Amino acid sequence: MHELDIKGAVDARPELDDQGEFTPQIDASRLAQRIQTAVRRSTCGGIRQLDVQVEGELVVLHGRCGTYYCKQLAQHAAMNLIESLMLDLAVSNEISVW
What we know:
By secondary structure, this protein is of the alpha+beta class.
């Protein structure tokens, strides 16, 4: 069995869910900060007024950018981080393109 390096976004002490399976406990503010950092790196700071919110099983990206490509990079950065943490969260990309 291997361990993931999750660097604080997920509590290392999982709890049993309703089906009796172990699920990681998410620290929403830490996860939002990690996603925000990943998005900034991926887009080279191309998203203005970037805000990331974790609401239950949904991650919402807010901000403004100049191209649809930059918006797409932001979404993929968020999805890749979520996947690397083995979390089952949806991403809603509310970034506007001006």
